[in-house]
Structures are given as structure tokens and as C-alpha cells.
Design a protein that fits this description.
heterodimer; A: about 270 residues; MetI-like fold; 13 helices; globular; B: about 280 residues; mainly alpha
């Protein structure tokens, strides 16, 4: 009975890994296959004549490198703008009791509830009016809608978790609130801070619909749009699509796996404790 | 208060302003003249709107159900002791970590009717005689989209469940074992009740994400074939940027926003009753 349970568990784990990993593996394998193996009537499992042609095409003869740089600029920009705003807001929510505090927090959470599709039309009209469609600044601003609320939320819970006594000791020693924030609270909440940075960066990096609407010029288009461009209705170059997908995924996957422990801790702390 | 002000101002500007502006656009015409509820009438009586609404409920409802069931089962499984558990836990996160667009294109390729590996395996094993048109058959395309969406997000539920299980006091299991409880009894009477707050939060997030989920369907089918996978967010995009009926799109947005808000508010009011579960 116990043996049967162990075997059953192992089979389940194997099934789980297959489901989670197979598409990812298939993307890697496909990106190295020459056309005659990609479009074979009987599927070819492993590339028999592996080729780097798709990567050469994607990195050398397409817009993907340009889009990669655009994605990097916009993701970093949006993260760097969101971070200081979120730090101050979260510190205020975590440490001060003021009228409207609960309402403010609820408001931040409500920002998270907003269906993006419902605001995309007025945002587009507004950005066009301001001349910010097809600009880095416009995209960075728009992405604050996605990154700022959750950043505030996550940081508030991570600041709340730091014992207030540490700060009280510093106040008695005559330190200012700002000094306390930057020299005590922030260093102590480094895991939370890193989670927020990774979260904000990855969310922006992966986002598709805003990019589709607000970046229609190849000077500012991001990687998701680049990949969608390869996937046209007819004559999709699947090898190139898979290679471009690899180029987009690898940096994100590396960041996540390196910070996985930290990130999962920060996210669940936010979710469980609010 | 002063600390929180800049962020609140930015959120207000980016969130409240568009909502108010949407409401304004929805009651005016292209020239900016007030037309009352004309746009709402046009959209509400269009048969496409009801098709999209039904599809949205189906897509979001079925996705959340399967994400929740699969995610909880996997979370409980990953809480058991087995070899290389840490690595398995990390690898389980891959679908969630992979960018949505990449997940969409990879599944698109895997479900390709001629050269896709899914049909390759099925016909190779002799399970089906003819390749299946996963993305062209009107009855199969929505379940396929739901499966992809489930694949993408069940790891999130699993991680939440796993984290929730870490907080269950060991004494509960010990006393249950003394009473001769089996593993399934522990799941039923200890784990699931203890996981309730986690699952309540997870369902809330899945609902919000589900109402926002456009990428997979947009990239693979764009709402087709014959509107079989048309969901309301895609209808809004089409109305605004293909039909160029910005005001009608705004009316549709307003309705979608109102309904989403009511669903979330009812959920928070009646399911997330303990107020520490969702907001501070």
C-alpha cells in the first residue's frame, strides 16, 4: 500500500513535469530545426541536422534586436519610475495612521482590479492628444497602471513586517523620517524590494495589449509585438517565431529562477497578509 | 499622508481619469456632441455583444475552475516529501514565468493542424485517424483556449496553496494521525479548511486576470473562427481600432467595467467575508 502510494506520487510528479516543461522544451527544439524537419509529415522529435539559421535570421535580419532594446528601455523606465513612488506610498501606509488610510489602500487595490480593456480606448485618445503615442514616455506612463498598484501593495506588507521598535530607537537618537526610511527600513526589506523590482520589470516586459495599441511604430515596438508580427495568418516562419520566443524568454526565466525563493516569499507575503 | 500622496496622485491620474473619460466618450458621438444612451443602445442590441458576453463567461468561468482544481491538487502534491522536491517546485513555475505571448505562439505551433506535435502524437499513436483542427473546429477551439489559459496560471495557484500549507500548524496533523486519519481525511478536514483564505485571494486574482486575459486568444484566433472565441475585451479592441467606432467601444467598455466591478464587489462582500483576507 505504502509502495503503491509512493509510485503513484512519483507518476503524478512525472506527469506534472511533462505538462509544465513540454511546451518549453518543444519551443527550444523547434528553434534549432531546419524547415524540412519543422514541416515534416511524421514529426521529428530531436533535430537531426540542428541549425542556427533561425537565430541568425532573428538576430541579424529582423527587427527583433531593436525591439529587445525597446523592451529593455521601457521595462527599466517603468520600474524606475514606479519604485520611488511606491516606496514613499508604502512607507506612509505602513507607518502612519491618517484619515483615509484604509480608503487609500482600498483605492490602490482597486487600481489592480481595473480591466485594462475597459480603459484602453480613453487612454489611447488621451495619449494621442498629448502626442505620446509611439513614444517611450507614453508607454512608460501607461505601464505604471500595471506596476504601481501592486508595488505599493507588496511593499506596504513588507514594511509592516519590520518591527517598529527599530525605528523608534532611531527617532530617540534624533534621526529624521527620511533617514530612517533609507537607512533602516529599506535595507531591512531588501527581499520585498527585489520582489517588487522583478515583478514590475517582468510585468512590463511581458505585456502585450498595451504595447499593441500604444506602440505602432517599429522605433518603439516591444518584443511581444515583434513575435506577433512573425505569426501572420499565412506563411508563418515557425522556426523564427520559436527562436524569437527564446530570445524573449531566456532573460526573464533566468531572473525568475535566480530570484525564485525571494520572489515567491514576497508575493505570498503580500497576498496572505495584505 | 504626504508620503502616500505622489503615488496616489499618479494612480488617480492614470486610473480615475480614463474611467471618467470613458464615461464621457460613451455618451457622445465622434464629433463630441451629446447623444445620451445611443451608443449603449447600439452595442446592447448587437448580437455580437451577447455572443461575446457568453463566451467571456464561459472562458473565465471554465478557466478559473480548472486552474483552481489543478493548482490545489498540485500544491498539495508538492507539499509531500519526495526526492528533488525543490527542483520540481521551481520547474512547475515555468508556465507562469514564460511570457504570455510566448506561451500563445508555442501552443499555436503545437496545435497546428498539419505540423503540430499534438496531432503528430495522436495520429502517430493511432488514436485518431485524421488530424484534428484544434483551432478551426468551432466546438474545440474554446476548450483549447481554456486549456492553454489553465496551463499558464495553475502554477500560480499551486504556489499560493504551497505557501498556505506551510502555515498549517504541525499539531493539527499530529492529532489527526492519532485519531487514525488517512491522507484524504487530512486533505478534506485540515488542508482545505486551512487553505480557505489563500484560495479566496487566489480566486479574486484569477477572476481579475481572467477578465483581462486577451493575449492568448488575440494572438491565436483573434476571436475567430466565426466569433467562437470572441470575448468582450477583444470586441472592445475591434470596435475601437478596426471599426474605428471609438464612442461605441467606450460604451461597451463602460458596461464591461460596471459588470466586472459588480462581480468583484459581490465576491468580496459575500465570499471574502473576513476583511483581513483581501484588504489589510
Amino acid at each position: 500500500m505504502r509502495l503503491a502510494a509512493r509510485v503513484g506520487l512519483l507518476l503524478c510528479v512525472a506527469g506534472l513535469l511533462t505538462i509544465c516543461l513540454f511546451p518549453f522544451v518543444w519551443m527550444i527544439v523547434s528553434s534549432f530545426k531546419p524547415p524540412q524537419e519543422l514541416y515534416a509529415v511524421r514529426p521529428v522529435w530531436l533535430p537531426e541536422h540542428p541549425t542556427l539559421d533561425h537565430y541568425r535570421h532573428v538576430l541579424g535580419a529582423s527587427n527583433v534586436p531593436r525591439y529587445f532594446v525597446n523592451s529593455l528601455i521601457i521595462s527599466l523606465g517603468s520600474t524606475l519610475v514606479a519604485l520611488p513612488l511606491a516606496i514613499f506610498a508604502a512607507y506612509g501606509f505602513a507607518r502612519f495612521r491618517f484619515p483615509g488610510r484604509r480608503a487609500g489602500l482600498a483605492f490602490v487595490l482597486a487600481g489592480q482590479l481595473l480591466p485594462t480593456a475597459a480603459i484602453i480606448v480613453p487612454l489611447f485618445v488621451t495619449l494621442r492628444h498629448l502626442g505620446l503615442v509611439n513614444t517611450y514616455l507614453g508607454l512608460i506612463l501607461v505601464y505604471l497602471i500595471l506596476t504601481l498598484p501592486l508595488s505599493v501593495w507588496m511593499l506596504t506588507s513588507s514594511f509592516t513586517a519590520i518591527p517598529v521598535e527599530l525605528e523608534e530607537a532611531a527617532i530617540i537618537d534624533g534621526a529624521s523620517r527620511l533617514a530612517i526610511l533609507f537607512r533602516i527600513t529599506l535595507p531591512l526589506s531588501l527581499p520585498g524590494l527585489v520582489s517588487v523590482i522583478v515583478y514590475a520589470f517582468v510585468t512590463t516586459w511581458n505585456e502585450f495589449i498595451f504595447a499593441l495599441v500604444f506602440a505602432q511604430d517599429s522605433r518603439v515596438k516591444t518584443l511581444p509585438i515583434g513575435i506577433a508580427e512573425f505569426t501572420s495568418e499565412f506563411n508563418t516562419d515557425w522556426g523564427a517565431v520559436m527562436a524569437a520566443s527564446m530570445v524573449m524568454t531566456v532573460p526573464v526565466a533566468l531572473a525568475f529562477l535566480a530570484l525564485q525563493r525571494l520572489f515567491v516569499g514576497g508575493l505570498t507575503a503580500g497576498a496572505l497578509k495584505g | 499622508m504626504l508620503f502616500a500622496l505622489p503615488a496616489l496622485a499618479v494612480i488617480a491620474l492614470l486610473v480615475v481619469y480614463p474611467i471618467v473619460y470613458t464615461a464621457w466618450l460613451s455618451v457622445t458621438d465622434a464629433a463630441g456632441a451629446f447623444v445620451g444612451l445611443e451608443n449603449f443602445k447600439t452595442m446592447a442590441t448587437s448580437s455580437v455583444t451577447s455572443t461575446a458576453a457568453i463566451n467571456t463567461v464561459y472562458y473565465v468561468g471554465a478557466s478559473i475552475t480548472s486552474q483552481l482544481v489543478l493548482g490545489t491538487a498540485v500544491g498539495i502534491m508538492l507539499n509531500r516529501r519526495f526526492r528533488a522536491r525543490g527542483i520540481v517546485r521551481s520547474l512547475t513555475l515555468i508556465p507562469w514565468v514564460v511570457p504570455g505571448i510566448v506561451a500563445a505562439t508555442t501552443w499555436y505551433w503545437m496545435l497546428h493542424s498539419e505540423f503540430g506535435i499534438v496531432n503528430g502524437m495522436l495520429t502517430g499513436a493511432g488514436l485518431v485517424a485524421q488530424p484534428i483542427g484544434w483551432l478551426t473546429n468551432g466546438r474545440l477551439v474554446m476548450p483549447a483556449m481554456i486549456a492553454i489559459n489553465t496551463w499558464k496560471l495553475f502554477p500560480f495557484v499551486a504556489v499560493m496553496v504551497l505557501a498556505g500549507l506551510q502555515t498549517v500548524p504541525e499539531e493539527l496533523y499530529e492529532s489527526a494521525r492519532i485519531d487514525g486519519a488517512s491522507f484524504w481525511d487530512e486533505v478534506r478536514y485540515i488542508m482545505l479548511p486551512q487553505l480557505r483564505p489563500v484560495l479566496v485571494t487566489a480566486v479574486l486574482l484569477l477572476t481579475i486576470w481572467g477578465l483581462n486575459a486577451v493575449t492568448v486568444i488575440y494572438v491565436i484566433t483573434r476571436g475567430g473562427p466565426a466569433n467562437r472565441t470572441l470575448i468582450t475585451p477583444i470586441q472592445i479592441l475591434r470596435q475601437a481600432f478596426e471599426a474605428l467606432e471609438v464612442n461605441q467601444a467606450a460604451a461597451l467598455s463602460t458596461m464591461y467595467f460596471a459588470v466586472s466591478l459588480i462581480v468583484v464587489a459581490l465576491y468580496v462582500r459575500f465570499v471574502a467575508t473576513r476583511d483581513d483576507e483581501v484588504v489589510s
